[in-house]
Design a protein that fits this description.
Elements (H helix, E strand, L loop, with lengths): L1 H5 L6 H4 L2 H25 L3 H15 L14 H4 L3 H13 L8 H23 L3 H4 L1
Length: 134
């Protein structure tokens, strides 16, 4: 926010109303992944190093250091199956361009909540075994 003010970016407060929605979608994704990988780490100790590698690869598979326009238009529907691509692009739309996010946020929300549901289901399915293994 400080940099937006310093560089005098236009602020559209109506678009900023989408920020809590984007944050909820991001938290759903992170909660699902966190629950799933926490449960997997109890059973398989090799999950932690593979997770570090996976996060680094995921960083380059998400539009953090490059714009989404760098991805060919024919591949973008598949690219947006990565929920972080839609989340990051939604943050850019709202904060940098002052626009409402596009339909990619809806796809990111669906994928994020599916991951959250699957992560929660798996965690609850194996939770009773934690005490025996830890």
């Amino acid at each position: 926010v400080v940099l937006i003010l310093v560089y005098r970016m236009p602020i559209n407060l109506a678009a900023w109303l989408y920020l809590p929605v984007i944050l909820v979608v991001q938290l759903a994704l992170l909660l699902g992944l966190g629950l799933a990988f926490a449960a997997l780490n109890v059973f398989y100790r090799d999950v932690q190093p593979f997770l570090a590698l996976g996060i680094q690869l995921w960083f380059y598979a998400s539009p953090i250091v490059y714009p989404v326009t760098a991805v060919p238009a024919a591949l973008r529907p598949f690219y947006y199956l990565n929920p972080m691509a839609g989340i990051i692009e939604a943050y850019r739309s709202v904060l940098l361009f002052g626009q409402a996010p596009g339909s990619y946020l809806g796809l990111a929300a669906v994928v994020s909540f599916l991951i959250m549901g699957a992560g929660y289901w798996y965690f609850k399915r194996v939770e009773f075994l934690f005490a025996d293994l830890v």
